Amino acid sequence: MEKLKSMVETIKRSSAKVVVTFIIAQDAKALMQEVVRQNITDKQWLANDAWVTFAAVSVPQNIPSLAGTLGFALRKADIPGLGSFLTHILPTTLSPDPDPFKPELWESLFGCSLNITGRQQTLKPCLGSEEIAVGESMYADVAQLRASYNVYKAVYAIAHAIQDMLACSPERGPLINGQCPDVRKLHPSEYIGRVNFTTLLGEQLYFDENGDPPASYDILNWHVTPQGKVEFVNVGHFVSSQGSGGQFHIDMDRVLWGGGQGDRVPVSICSTPCPAGTRKAVQKGRPECCFDCFQCPEGEISNETGTGSIDCIRCPERFWSNSDHTVCLPQQVDFLSHNDIMGIILSIMSVAGATLTAATFTTFFYYRNTPLVRANNSEVSFMLLLSLKLCFLCALAFIGRPVAWSCALRHTLFGTSFGLCISCLLSRTVVVLVAFRSTLPGENLMRYFGLVQQRLGISFCTLVQVLICVLWLILAPPQPAERGLMAGPISGSVYQRGDIVIGGLFPVHVKAPEPETEFQDIRRAYRWLRTMIFAVEEINSNPHLLPNLTLGYLAADTCLAESTTLSTSMAMVTGLQVSRAGDGCKSAPAVPVIIGDARSSSSMILADTLGGFDIPMVSYMASCVCLSNSLKYPRFFRTMISDALEAQAMAQLLQLLGWTWVGLVSADDDFGRFAMQILTEELRGTGVCVAYHQVVPKGYAMEKLKSMVEIIKRSSAKVVVTFIIDQDAKALMEEVARQNITDKQWLANDAWVTFAPVSVPQNIPSLAGTLGFALRKADIPGLGSFLTHIRPTTLSPDPDPFKPELWESLFGCSLNITGKQQTLKPCLGSEEIAVGESMYADVAQLRASYNVYKAVYAIAHAIQDMLACSPERGPLINGQCPDVRKLHPSEYIGRVNFTTLLGEQLYFDENGDPPASYDILNWHVTPQGKVEFVNVGHFVSSQGSGGQFHIDMNRVLWGGGQGDRVPVSICSTPCPAGTRKAVQKGRPECCFDCFQCPGGEISNETGSIDCIRCPERFWSNSDHTVCLPQQVDFLSHNDIMGIILSIMSVAGATLTAATFTTFFYYRNTPLVRANNSEVSFMLLLSLKLCFLCALAFIGRPVAWSCALRHTLFGISFGLCISCLLSRTVVVLVAFRSTLPGENLMRYFGLAQQRLGISFCTLVQVLICALWLILAPPQPAERGVRENRGPKIVLECDVGSVVGFVLVLGYIGLLASLCLLLAFLARKLPDNFNEAKFITFSMLIFFAVWVAFVPAYISSPGKYSVAVEVFAILASSYGLLLCIFAPKCFILLLRPERNTKKHLMAR
């Protein structure tokens, strides 16, 4: 236990997150119990087959520590019939059983006792009815048949061996002299090792020389079910066959990783990989995975991450490491300039010294006859001052850029002037010394040191210095030199003679100081150069293409600089000179055509320059749209696809994926500007809007780059479209990764989509899922072996000056063929280049190389067509053919149309552009954390077509962390149906707000600009998405409102009839007689008509109902008010006539009342008759033409507003008179004051009808009719209740008050 505890503590303390085991099942059980006890949950366990499916280990208490375990298990097999065979057994009653294990199995399975041995048993006896079910016990579990399957195969192997032995033919057996084994003994050992058969389950079985079968493992992963149990999930397999090392497959997406990592692969490393700019050094006494990281020394870099660089790379000539030691930057040329502060100060001091010396000279000359000057030998003083002035002035020769004359001048002038100066001083010193010596008696030395002797001495000393300087200038003069440069080979050229020599320009080295870039490995561009050589040699060996002509080549390094490119190309076309390693400047054959250049900017310069020489050029990498101009560049062709087609393809991709809100990033050159111009033109009118357009700054100024990336980060656009070169992409993505932008979908152009320095691990979180267009990948037969079958020669220099450098770069050794001091180990000579092991020999992604290959073949076909030219049918004037001696194929290159050996058709359009053929690449991340470029589609354009686009959406891994979901990149969410969009002020058309369609208008499409007005008799639904037929609406008998009003109308008529019956019953009583019973009955009859006329307003309007409702209303109310007016007048006159001399009642008798009522009613009848005759009311639909609502209101149009107003006005006039007269009679005696009740009824009448007007106008549809009906019923109820309710109360409830005495009491 102590040892086990100590062992597990070691596992727990270790930084290793992965534990690999080779233990038996019981060991695993004991170990995992201690692991669980110590709560170790951060390890990824790798189990061997002995315990990976062991049930005693995969118990619930072990799950926290072992969930996610990966292990190898023997292949699982489903042996037909084995399950039923295992379950169809019963122990016999014999003792002992022929199979002694059956009883024990039975008792173990069912926990009972068979008691067939006579042993004392504590278990219950078995009943005999027990049955073994498949899968219910470990014995009958056939779901994980692994060891059982091995037993099964072992039996069959023996059987096959016995069968082979029995089939042995004499003299052909395996024993001595071909003897067969003794059949009686049946020893199959000689045959078992030779069996080779396929089992019934389809697996091949055989044994190798060691008696081992082929390996066949299932890779199991421990998943935890919702029930908390372990499920062994098969996530892969490992199979080895005869002669192979094994095939391994694992489905990473199905793996649940241990250590609590879930779907993330655990990281188990000893030391974090050394970042770029450092090298790793293994820690002493520890494995190679444990190391320290040390900064690279000055002048050396390491630009690899992941595994970490072992050594730092020394920067090439004229380059020096940056502060991070990650890239080599061009060394700045430094000298003491007149513009430097130090140079200015020293120049001022020099001029000031010369001026001061001149002033001293002037002073001494002015006082030359004074004793002080004369005593100091004025002539030597003047000579000394002159030499001092020269000393001051010679300092100016040391300031400024060193050139040949200044280098010679500065040192000779310095030596001569200081020699003269010191000679003068020496002369004066000697004279002073001798002068004092000559004062002694007898001394006369001064005669030897007079003025003449002094001149001679000074001249002699100065002449010696002059002679030294002259010899120096003649023999080895001072020259301008650069200090601080490292020795290295000078970029040269590769030449092969031929009848026609094809020129080639390749950026094998990068020395361009603007913009600053890192040193480029020569392996990529050198592969392009070698591809050109391969194509030339392939054509020369082709008997069908240029059979009687040999092609040669002259390929040179441009150093990716315009100046070098131009000078090299001029040397090629003029044949005057070319830089070749070790040969200096020599003559070279003039080339009639050039393949190059790699950059668009250089190609523009070359096309302009070489056009004057009538020299065509075929570029393999220049893609700028600006070069598609046959008028400006008539001799320019290219096998590289124009950016215009790539821009078209990108525009189509954006439309296909619905990305309408995108950001644009371009290079700060013609390539980026022209590409963006074409892209924006392609996007115009497609609904795709640009959120921003950023330009990668030249020189990659950090502040500008940081600001640019911050704009990308803040933008709501999730898709970023780029047109930048590879170095721009590298600088940009480093800043993107630094700011941790992981939510963008990047669309890469072909310049950087496969650029290795961009697809480094640190960029993966930001760039995983990137989509990009890449040149068509090709597999050029034989190129791989051609690239690898090279060796640098021992000659110095090598005919191919790039081979030694390539060799040293590939193998990290030194050939030391130039005699230079080397720090690398010497090359052994046994090194071999393997296909795919380096960027140079990687033929898996041949894209630019394939363009070079096609360019050579295009030139070869043009030359063949030119040589086949027939007189009078040539392309020149009068059908002339080109001069065969000059072989200028420019007229023919544009007309080539051939199929390459890879089956691709190649031709050039009128602008010298080839058809587009792009692979659409998607950045997938491998389990090892590296980028894999997966081809998910293609874009092909043929002559006269806009391009065929295809993408397999199921294979795409989308960027921005979206996985298998297409990212959404929109400025505004599309307006749903039922709304319209309105562009936000000052923003692109993709940014808009959504507004609901007004009533009666719809939009049935997403993103509608305008709403559509519904046709006549239709109205929009509540969502404004469809037009529905308008419903015909009117006040129906089935409506709740109609039913209520109908009930009120019938109830009012019934109440009126009851009142009429009551009055008729009590017609002879004083109360009824006093109230003029005849008029009361007439009033009640008119009120009943008023109630009943309301029913005419309810129901579907038709012609007769419209005519009836208004006329019946007018006449019934006219009769009603006329009766009230008559009663009011009679009451008023009756009380007035009680005065002496008054006899007015004779004019207001019953006959007069009838006449008055009839007259007033007749006027209303005449008005209604005229109304019906002239402009009768008619049924009408309201809201059809106006589209005022979802319903068509069916109503009665009054026909004549005048007639309607006259009817209402007349009723109002009668009611006003009645109110006025009743108001005058309000103070009559209470017992007989009917005028008070009439006043109240009229007030209610007026209140109702005054309120009716605004309510009627503002009520919609059928509710206006309901308002009118309600007004009729309310006014009718007001009249009935105010006038007749008090009387009915007395008649029915207070009959004692219905007496003449009571009525006449006051």
TrEMBL record:
Compartment(s): Cell membrane
Gene3D superfamilies from the UniProt entry: 3.40.50.2300, GPCR, family 3, nine cysteines domain
Chief location: membrane
Keywords of the record: Cell membrane, G-protein coupled receptor, Glycoprotein, Membrane, Receptor, Signal, Transducer, Transmembrane, Transmembrane helix
UniProt-listed SUPFAM superfamilies: Periplasmic binding protein-like I
UniProt domain G-protein coupled receptors family 3 profile: residue ranges: 342-478, 1041-1306
GO cellular component: plasma membrane
InterPro entries linked: ANF_lig-bd_rcpt (IPR001828), GPCR_3 (IPR000337), GPCR_3_9-Cys_dom (IPR011500), GPCR_3_9-Cys_sf (IPR038550), GPCR_3_C (IPR017978), GPCR_3_Ca_sens_rcpt-rel (IPR000068), GPCR_3_CS (IPR017979), GPCR_3_vmron_rcpt_2 (IPR004073)
Residues that span the membrane, as ranges: 341-367, 379-400, 412-436, 456-475, 1040-1066, 1078-1099, 1111-1135, 1155-1174, 1201-1225, 1237-1257, 1269-1293
GO molecular function, one term: G protein-coupled receptor activity
Domain of life (superkingdom): Eukaryota
Membrane topology of the entry: Multi-pass membrane protein
Matches recorded under PANTHER family: C-FAMILY ODORANT RECEPTOR OLFCD2-RELATED, CALCIUM-SENSING RECEPTOR-RELATED
Family: Belongs to the G-protein coupled receptor 3 family.
Protein name, as recorded: Extracellular calcium-sensing receptor
